[in-house]
Amino acid sequence: MKFSFSSEQEEFRTGVRRALEARSPTTEVRRLMATDAGFDREGWKKLNQELGLTAIHIPEAYGGAGFGYGELGIVLEEMGRSLLCAPFFSTAALGTTAILNAGTEEQKQALLPTIAGGETTATLAFSEDSGLTEAASVALTATRSGATFRLEGSKSFVLDGHTADLIVVLARRPGSEGDEGLSFFTVEGNAPGLDRKLLKTMDETRKLARLTFNGVEARLLGSEGGAAAPFAKTLQQVIVCLANEMVGGADRLREDALAYVQMRMQFGRSIASFQTTKNKAADMLVDVELAKSAAYYAAAALDEGDDDVPAVASLAKAAASEAYLQTAIHAVQMHGGIGFTWDNDTHLWFKRAKSSEILFGDANYHREAMMRHWATPLAV
Amino acid sequence: MTEPTEESVRAEVSAWLKDNWDPALGLVEWRLKLCESGWGAPHWPKEWYGRGLPVKFNAIVDEEFAKIGAVGVAKAGIRTLAAATILAHGTDLHKEKFLKRILTGEDTWCQLFSEPGSGSDMAGAVTRADKQGNKWVINGQKVWTTSAHKAQWGLLLARANWDVAKHKGLAYFILDMKQPGVQVHPLRQMNYHASFNQVFFTDAIVEPEFLVSDVGDGWNVATTTLMHERRGADGLRTWATASNAKGRIYEEERAEIATTMEPYKWYPQRAGRVDLVMQRAKETGKIDDPVVRQEIAKLLIMSKSAEWTARRARAAQNQGKPQGPEGSLGKLVASNVARQAARVHTYLTGADALLSGKDSPMEGVIAEILISVPASSIAGGTDEIQRNIISERVLKMPRETSVDTNKPFKDVPRNIVSS
Prior knowledge:
The complex is a heterodimer of chains A (380) and B (419).
Chain A: H1 7-23, H2 26-33, H3 41-51, H4 69-82, H5 88-102, H6 105-116, E1 122-125, E2 141-145, E3 148-159, E4 166-172, E5 182-188, E6 194-199, E7 208-221, H7 228-263, E8 265-266, E9 269-270, H8 275-304, H9 309-335, H10 346-358, H11 363-374
Parallel strand pairs in A: 1-4
Antiparallel strand pairs in A: 2-3, 3-7, 4-5, 5-7, 6-7, 8-9
Helix pairs in contact in A: 1-4, 4-7, 5-6, 5-7, 7-8, 7-9, 7-10, 8-9, 9-10, 9-11
Chain B: H1 6-20, H2 27-37, H3 58-68, H4 79-89, H5 92-104, E1 109-112, E2 128-132, E3 135-143, E4 153-159, E5 170-176, E6 182-187, E7 196-206, H6 218-232, H7 235-238, H8 248-261, H9 267-270, H10 277-284, H11 290-318, H12 330-349, H13 365-372, H14 383-394
Parallel strand pairs in B: 1-4
Antiparallel strand pairs in B: 2-3, 3-7, 4-5, 6-7
Helix pairs in contact in B: 1-3, 4-5, 4-6, 10-12, 11-12
């Protein structure tokens, strides 16, 4: 379904939107973003279990609902609209996707049911202090120690890394480099030797952590030395998820800015009657609708297993990065002075636009990734 | 009588074609049979060369024609707008005199709306229509008139009353183009082509029976024409693909299409030729320039997203859903794409972009892109007008306060022309 949603999907969207509007007004967003955890564990568990959110793209065999990225994209788009403060992206888009791509049958049976059921939160730790997303940048080592492994090193920019119950870690065999010798491991959030530090983030609704591993005992996920391919696949799926979340936020910002200019009177008339405002509003609609088309297409391409998923995923992320930030810039401008204040809600989405623009590679990065797939590798 | 169904229409048209289609006939001769049977325009009324079928069956009829290679009625050009307008607003005399010759392709039409002084503000037309005796006398100038030099008839919007407000004083006429008071001059464009004309009226005459609207109702009739123009903008051209089959009727049809399509031959370049970009990037070696790669990627993202947005709009339409915002953006998005494409073609071409015609790459195609793209954000509604339409119709934002609609048109300020 690259170009439309089924009526069941539309109904599902309506249900999620209603629930999130009720549970995540901006007063609640502001309350939770000021906490260290960044979410309310009991409240989230209840909402998640009511709507079956973390079960969505987990197959029924592992206790999930067996839907695809189309449905996951719908939930993420609605969460982007409402800025819900919860470890959903980290658990569903990052942790779950990595386990699905890399785990053995037994590991999926063991790990996924509690995630689907909402008892366990998860995340994926891959970037280190450089912030790069390439597997080659991984320096954290995993050394075999009997039946398990010991992890040494650090991870950074880990989404909800300070609160996740289960952390999937990308590490390498000592002495290996590039895409060789990479493996995924699972670590409990409270494992001995794991130091978790909450980073202060510009976008307070998105919590990041730096994790230090001092000989932390870890279990291998999937095959030893074979993580490069499932990691690459995971990243493609993750950026499509993020693109769908982003277009939800962009559309909400656009609607709020439009509602504001409709009621704002200056020079004896609504500022929505000035063509300079109207033209900007039209351009915002173009930006957001085009980015939506790309995000929806990419989610469907994942579900349909298209050959050009690597290009289409990067296209969707690049499009969303530009559209969301541009919409946020226009939205602040259309609000005028009040748009720059703390009390007005616009900055909450502006910061989300900024953090999403950068997270997992900015527009320049993904434009080049797209070209590598569709045109040629860049000659050096 | 039972309701027509897809199956019944298909069976009926294919049986009729089986009995009647004959590629040895002349084009007009064959089309007269189509007029008589109603299969040339099945959605038109039975009394006027159609079969009164719902428009959704047209696709099935077209399919059956295509299956055996049967030629259809004349569908390309302004004549289709004339037909739609006459069907909606014309008298029986107009229908009698014009509709059949539109379908057979014997008559060519042109649209006399835009003026040098009124482009986006089309209702501000100042071409005069004055009643002398029982005839209308026309004086003034029209512009951007496709095919005026070939047309027998023109759809004319002119001002018949200057004492009422702008939209209230217009009348809509059918004008005989082949008369001494009408002079047609080609209008040369910045890309060397002359696809349009300027039309000058000096005491041109319209017989009273060729007034289509009441005086004062011309804008309403013009709206019908414009609505069909917008709806069919691409259809006017894409329908007109000639078959390459052998035989007299195909040759006649090819000649007709070649004439009709002549003015549009640079239109692919106007849209930016995104299709050429990757090949050119490889040929020129610019595919290895990281900055140019970024610009190419921006273009591809824009054009792919535009295509997917159009397909979302079509999917919604096919499912009978109300039109969402995605359906109103195409024109504006297309000019964004064209501009970025021209930028990329320039980066790819380097110094050769200084050249034109045969001295420039691809026998002048690249140069033609660079000097044709500016038309895309103007023709058929400027970007600014498109943004106003989107903001008013989709986003429900208020109209800009109007200063010219509540006073007699004679008191509205007009262009300042220095002598």
